[in-house]
Amino acid sequence: MKFTLSWLRDHLETDATLDAICAKLNVIGLEVEDVTDRGRALTPFRTARIVEAVQHPDADRLRVCQVDAGEGFESVQVVCGAPNARTGLRVIFAPPGTYIPGSDITIKTGKIRGQESGGMLCSLRELGLGAESDGIAELPEDTLPGQSYAAFADLNDPIIEIAITPNRGDALSIRGIARDLAAAGMGTLKPWLAETVEGTFASPLNWDLQYPEACPFVLGRTIRGVRNGPSPDWLRARLEAIGVRPISVLVDITNYFTFDLGRPLHVFDVNKVAGPTLSLCHGGRETFRALDGRDYVVEHADLVIADASGVQSLAGIMGGEGTGVDDDTTEVFVECALFDPVRIALTGRRLGLHSDARQRFERGVDQALPVAALEAATAMIVELCGGEVSEVVSAGAPPAWERTAHLRFARLQDLGGLAVAPDDAVHKLEKLGFAIRSRDETGVTVAVPPWRNDVANAPLLDQGSDLEATRAAQAAEGVVAIEAECDLIEEVLRLVGLDAIPPVALPQARVVPGAAYSPRQVRSAATRRLLAARGLLETVGFSFVAHETAALFGDVPEGLRLLNPIAVDLDQLRPSPLANLVAAVARNEARGQSRVDLFEIGPVFGAEGQALVAAGVRSGHAPRQPGRGAVPVDPWDVRAD
């Protein structure tokens, strides 16, 4: 997750230095991976004006420029090969001794084809800020010579990159990071409230929600009369700073809110949508071309957004080329929805499709934010693109995200190892957005904020035949209560600082217990020694194999096939270790091993459950014996084992 210091300060009122902010981020569990200060590297570069540019007397493609770069460089001669170098142009000047990051050179005073040159006029690419160009950078005509270019271009804005753990989806937004820093004492979180934009007409597009398990709630509205095109400089600069390529103002606005509020959005070109309805439904093995230009086949479990002509978006992951906006777009439909994290993750993983939207949806987004986010995006679109706004259309209902968690103050010491005053603990939870529901001398009950999907969420329990529904519900409730309290303890301790927890040595045991082996362990050890004595080498293989391979070695119930395998060729629990051993023998023989004898003792899986099995394979020639030459192994050799 990348963000700039100035962007952070849009949400955080603070006077803290960059170093202090980075140190605090590390303390509260948002590990700083990198800090890039572009302004420091560009300190020597100045704004300048070409006073005069004349043709080089000895080179057709060079021009001799007299440059005014401010105090100390009022009249400098520079030989320049850019075709756009001309009298009166405002440019970027690098004095002698300046390191050029885009070209990896250091400027020196010298002669070029017999003419003195005391510096360099630069392109943005040479500063490491832009793509290839045919000439030097052209600054606005009213630019004063002698300014620091870094300050002129607002590049004195450090870029911070932090690592986000999978449970902290709320920290994939700049406002979420600011909230954590404010709670840790680094300033005050600025209030944010989206202004309501009243619609003036009925939206020509509506929702048809056919897959509520994957999308419980969706909003949208039409904005007509918009003007798409390049984004304003401030928006382009912010996106470029964090590594997002600006595309057009409509697309850039959706990307802006993805990072600013952690709220992915999507815009459809209304004139490219077939019919009056967008359906959120199952995929049907259609081929869909995404905005990355690649084709994907959507399966039944995938959630798609389709119009009368077919799939137009892989919901929560990436939109499609067919209804994407372009420079001719004049009417858009803005989508804002809540998607099921598990289904988004499974679809993205199966297709190998990564996006900023998927990263946020599969970790969980703020479930109370869709209405406000749609209003905020609408307001920015109208401000930057103009247009007339429709009424909001929706389908489904907001999920019941409200939940509570209870913290016993004594558990901070018992479980966390640190005594924290009850008032301090309550204050820190309130700063993080937890609302107090009740409190007594022993503990406090808080309401969990909608952006903290990692706190007090019900786990998925395996409700087997031996665990009826009532007992399963009771067990789930107990687990939630225990885990929620642990979550609250973690929140308090990370704001206090884990370094504040005093180290305590583990008690030393007075006796050393003897080894205790189960009958199964005894048999496994004996079998292992026996097979090793017979000359076989032990292997340890995956418990997973390819479905097609597993079918060659026994029954492969569909219930033992993995939905989210670690690799496409490891999608079935194995029915026999032989599936792994035969593959290992083949690999060794392919590498020139003429004799391969292997065994494995490991688990196998079938319809009746799991078992521990020993299996072995011999290949090549049998061991030589007196009076007999080298002969291939046969079943009798294996039977002798």
Automatic annotation (TrEMBL):
The UniProt entry, under InterPro entries, shows:
aa-tRNA-synth_II/BPL/LPL, B3/B4_tRNA-bd, NA-bd_OB-fold, Phe-tRNA-ligase_IIc_bsu, Phe-tRNA-ligase_IIc_bsu_bact, Phe-tRNA_synthase-like_B3/B4, PheRS_beta_core, tRNA-bd_dom
One GO location term (cellular component): phenylalanine-tRNA ligase complex
Q: What is its EC number?
A: 6.1.1.20
Give the main location. Answer: cytoplasm
Q: Where in the cell is it found?
A: Cytoplasm
UniProt cross-references to SUPFAM superfamilies, sorted A to Z: Class II aaRS and biotin synthetases, Nucleic acid-binding proteins, PheT/TilS domain
Q: Which UniProt keywords apply?
A: Aminoacyl-tRNA synthetase, Cytoplasm, Ligase, Protein biosynthesis, RNA-binding, tRNA-binding
GO biological process annotation, one example: phenylalanyl-tRNA aminoacylation
* Reaction catalyzed: tRNA(Phe) + L-phenylalanine + ATP = L-phenylalanyl-tRNA(Phe) + AMP + diphosphate + H(+)
- The TRNA-binding domain covers 39-150
GO MF annotation: an example: ATP binding
Q: Where is this region: Disordered?
A: 619-641
State the Pfam families in the record: B3_4, B5, tRNA_bind, tRNA_synthFbeta
SMART domains documented for this protein: B3_4, B5
Ranges of residues in domain B5: 400-503
Q: Which PANTHER family match?
A: PHENYLALANINE--TRNA LIGASE BETA SUBUNIT (PTHR10947:SF0), PHENYLALANYL-TRNA SYNTHETASE BETA CHAIN AND LEUCINE-RICH REPEAT-CONTAINING PROTEIN 47 (PTHR10947)
State the family named in the UniProt similarity comment for this chain: Belongs to the phenylalanyl-tRNA synthetase beta subunit family. Type 1 subfamily.
| Quaternary structure and partners | Tetramer of two alpha and two beta subunits.
Name under which the protein is recorded = Phenylalanine--tRNA ligase beta subunit
Source organism per entry reads Ameyamaea chiangmaiensis
